[in-house]
Write a structure and sequence with these properties.
Layout lengths: L3 H6 L15 H39 L4 H16 L1 H20 L28 H23 L1 H14 L14 H12 L6 H14 L4 H14 L14 H8 L10 H20 L15 H20 L4 H5 L4 H12 L6 H15 L6 H8 L2 H10 L2 H4 L4 H16 L10 H15 L5 H52 L7 H22 L4 H16 L8 H24 L4 H18 L19 H9 L3 H8 L5 E4 L7 E9 L4 E5 L5 E6 H9 L4 E2 L8 H19 L3
Antiparallel strand pairs: 1-2, 1-5, 2-3, 3-4
Helix pairs in contact: 2-3, 2-4, 2-8, 2-9, 4-7, 5-7, 5-8, 5-11, 6-9, 7-8, 11-29, 12-14, 12-17, 12-20, 15-17, 15-29, 19-21, 20-21, 21-22, 22-23, 22-25, 23-24, 24-25, 27-28
Length: about 725
Amino acid sequence: MKSAYDHYSEKTDNQSMGEQGPNSSLERERILTACRELIIKWVQVNFSAYFDTLDDRLFSLADKADNNDDQNRYFQIRGDLQHGKSIVQQAYLQQIYKAFDNYQANQATSSDYSNNLGKLTEPAPEDELNLSLIDNNELEEKLAIGSMSRKASALHSEMLYALNQRLAALRGGQKLTDQGNPIAPAVFGEAMKQSIDSISMDNRSKLLIYKIFESAFISKINKLYELVNHHFESHGVLPHLSYHIQKNASAQIAEQLPEELQEQTSAASMANQVNLIDAIRLLQQQLQPQAPQPRAQASPPVSQIIAGIQQLQQNAGALLKALESPQAVATSNPASLKQQAEQAVKKSDEVDAHIIEIVGLLFEYMLNDQQLPDSIKALLSYLHTPFLKIAVIDKDFFDHPEHPARQLLNSLVAAGERWVEPSGKHKNDVFQQIKNVVQRLLNEFDNDVRLFSELAFEFNQYLRQHSRRIRLAEKRAMQAAQGENKLKEIRLKVDAYLKKKSSELQLPPSIHTLLFEPWANFLSFNLLRFGSRSEQWREAALAVDDILWLSQPHGADDWHARKRAQELRKTLLPLLQSGFETVGYDSNQGKRLLEALMQRQQDTSTAATPVTTPVSANIDDVDIASQSREAAEGDKVIMMLRKTQPGTWFEFNADSKTPQRAKLAWANTDTLHFMFVNRMGQQVSAKTGQELASDIRAGKTRILQTLEGKPFFEKAMERVLEQLRQREQNNPD
């Protein structure tokens, strides 16, 4: 089984360098000359456009600066660049020409640091005591250039692969990599560095220029690659070249993940992770302590150390196997195994201490994650030893966000956060599935990374099926809640409608009951089923006017009133009785209400009181949301609830020993009704805004921090970087 990472690393040329193409050296030279002209023309146009963008960005930054110092700095950079524009552009083009010359001379077109950033942060022992501010500035520049080059190379790997094959064919068939490609991303990045060096500028300003260069120039080089590949194809240079990577690794990984986790493989996240590890390495380098004294005796080789911690890994597997319940796992303590593994690895001078530190900080962040249940924290803590081992033996672990070990841990953490109940009441088998993965890693991982690929694929397949079941359950619960809320909303509208109609009338209790109970239910039924423009609604609404008319005095000498009353006895009473039956109202109670209505009409037929007519009202004009807004006006908690997005987790009974977590699955912010589901997607609670606000103020309910879409590794490395920066501030020397 191939993982996404396998595909990311594999580049197989289905066609040999001997494939039919330009035969004579003269013809190949002509193709390359035309190619060089094409490249130079593209660079001239786009580098000039970049300079215009740079000028605009600097002006904008100066205009928005918070203080005069920053504003002056941006204007100073802008002025320096405007003054030296022709020098920078000429120097840039010279670097591109030089790269093409180096390609034709079978020499490297870019430096090693753009492709192997790890070497930048690992100075030779004899240089450790001689690091200076100038060195750090140069290191920052190289890291910035190297980072943008690596990201662009990964993003455009398919087109670069095709270019490398075609350029190799034109140069006689000798294998060509990105480091020998005259238009590889590293060439453009290093050309930027060389050209900026031609004018005097501080390091902070250079880093800003590189950042804008990445977004305004490097982001467009795919167009150049398409242009050059098309040029080669049209001239018969490997026109049928195929490439096995049909899509990038991130897309393949995303396809394996459930919908809830696919954001974790976004290009922005992948790029940010590359930047984070670069920044972490730089800070670790700056915080590097004095060189340690030489050991009295030679340290053991790393292979011997790995063999030693393999036993610790197996011990962890045996310990975990004996823990059957989530509660037992939560109360276990694998910390001693972590300490033993770190101590063992530190014995070898071949292992970079920075690696040990980063792995330790990653798992420390996990233990402090408030969203992760204690049982999952403890369970995943058993993975420290195998992850420390893979970080030591596999240099790609930190360099590639698509590494299968990282992807697997991201999925395990995300599944624990979303689908494992913190209380330990597991009604699904997510916890057991995570435990199975951890157990297999502890038992079977013997330095072969393919096990991570296999487990990641299987676990993500399980998560896809599990999350689909949860989404279907949530959808059914949401539809039921929406139906219930729609009925409540209609009843509130009908109630407001009736109150407005009768607001200026004195109604006896029996007439009030008739209107606001059985007939209100019948009105709601017609409004829900047929709508406000239907004949059914119109007839039921007209009956309201008739009921109110009958309940009011009309005078003994009003002949028209007597005639209308007689007609209503024949038409209104059957209509009311039919309506009562439709809504299932008690027949005996309904009969008493109708008798009371007729008796009221007889009692008022001889009265001399002036007639009061019902207030005119239209059901479509009734705004029940305004009532909720008025009720919530000035209530900060309710205003906060209005802005709370579905998917937010709440904790009920927060003041008790048995808190319950539930996810807000649906909310009507007009009527302030909220529906919550558990981790199985089943409805567990439906509350009004007033109820929720009251419980929040009393400490019975609290809103949990929103789950981020970021993968675990990205969040953890952000925290690691923050810790290193704090350490740097606390130790300025």
